[in-house]
Design brief:
Blueprint (H helix, E strand, L loop, with lengths): L29 E6 L1 H4 L5 E7 L3 E2 L3 E2 L5 E7 L3 E6 L3 E6 L5 E4 L5 E5 L6 E7 L7 E2 L16
Antiparallel strand pairs: 1-2, 2-10, 3-9, 4-11, 5-8, 5-10, 6-7, 6-9
Protein name: Cupin domain-containing protein
Length: about 150
């Protein structure tokens, strides 16, 4: 079997205890990496988890050109972004919910629960875990995909 044989690639198993914290971080949360170029040789995908401690808000950030899909595993995290006409919008979630974050959209995660950590699984359309920490939720990046001109 050839190393370059596209039909006979191997599967990769990343056990929960083997997740790597060696990835971009934002204050108030802890990201761990499962699937990436560094862990499995992925070319176009990044996947991992985010943990937000009880009664904690993350810093404001965005993920550059990357689209981000979020699946809520545990807790009731809230996701906050800025609508220019309405101000801050808060999306409250529960386990089993999904969130889509378009490219360049500044946002933050909040965990209002005083007793329990919130855990989400995240997947991105770029192999790198792009994280740009910003001072507030004001839009500063390129035009979002699908936005109006």
């Amino acid at each position: 079997m050839s190393e370059h044989d596209a039909f006979h690639q191997r599967l990769h198993h990343i056990a929960s205890h083997a997740l790597s914290g060696d990835t971009a971080q934002t204050t108030g949360m802890r990201r761990v990496e499962a699937i990436s170029g560094a862990t499995v040789g992925s070319r176009n995908l990044w996947m991992g988890q985010t943990h937000v401690a009880a009664s904690t808000n993350s810093g404001n950030h965005h993920h550059g050109e990357s689209e981000t899909a979020i699946y809520v595993v545990s807790g009731n995290p809230s996701f906050v972004f800025l609508d220019p006409g309405q101000g801050e919008i808060r999306v409250d979630t529960k386990p089993g919910d999904y969130i889509y974050v378009p490219p360049w959209v500044p946002h933050r995660e909040e965990n209002p629960d005083p007793d329990n950590e919130a855990v989400v699984v995240i997947s991105r359309t770029t192999q790198d875990a792009i994280v740009v920490n910003v001072p507030d939720l004001t839009w500063v990046g390129p035009v979002a995909i699908g936005s109006e001109d």
